[in-house]
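Dear colleague,

Thank you for sharing your sequence with our group. We've completed the structure prediction you requested, and as agreed, I am returning the results in plain text so they can be pasted directly into your records. Please verify that the sequence below matches your submission; if there's any discrepancy, let me know and we will rerun it promptly.
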Amino acid sequence: MHTRRFGRTNWQVSEIGFGMWGMAGWTGRDDDESRSSLNRAVELGCTFFDTAWAYGDGHSERLLGELVRAHPEMQLYTATKIPPKNRKWPARPQDELDDTYPPDHIREYTEKSLKNLGLNSLDLIQFHVWDDGWAEDERWQRTVDDLKREGLIRAFGLSLNRWEPENGLRALRTGAVDAVQVIYNIFDQAPEDALFPLCRELDLAVIARVPFDEGTLTDTLTLDSRWPRGDWRNTYFVPENLKASVEHAEALRPLVPQGMTMPELALRFILANPDVSTVIPGMRKLHHVEPNLAVSDNVPLDPDLLRKLRAHRWDRQPTSWSQ
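Please find the predicted structure tokens below.
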């Protein structure tokens, strides 16, 4: 497993991290399988784990806490997210900071996450939603600074709304943000336009999430795909999005090199960008862990293939179903 520098924190983290949403927020989860997957990831060199209080109201955080305590000899980096007070995903322009991240709410949920994890300090705490209309409100900045001074957190970050990579640039310029989490994959290349250059300028870490476009880039999505009742994907892959997603995956398929899978291609595309500090595929299943982490073998994509992949950029606008 290769490591990358995590921005100005100077942490060296595994370039492939572990996204833990599926371990509490999706149907079909199994705690024993989750534990096996997490421990196997550690064995293979994964050191960065991203969760959130909203993933099962702390359930995913508790699984991560178990993992960290089971490996005291390892430097495992813990990242979690504070839910917005109004429980609205994504943030809306009309929301005020008092609706989402007032100071007492930030502190309350930092302490709740620490309790779930069973730790005295978190490496990275993030806001789970963001709107740049709050950027200059110094209350969140002071609260974050207090949490750092008290040793409750080591770094602070933002998780940006889907398909809004530039809705966060003002916040980054305040100097209060150490890391930014953003959707970045073969289709979602927009972060390269303005977000990544600013992160380079300010020496901020970049966490690339949704590397497989919620399943489109796993090469398993079809027009007949269905999920159990209550599964989040039913609300995301509405008919208009399901059809478009399948069409984009089919257009990409001829570019997948012989002997390579589409998920591997998706991860290699992301790792080809040095602005990315770590990418966090969801890996609920044990049989996903080994192939995903094996991509960290320092074998670059062919430049001609990389150029062809860039032509598959798919710019989308937030909608009622995009969440």
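Summary note from our side: The first helix runs from residue 31 to 43.

Kind regards,
the structure core
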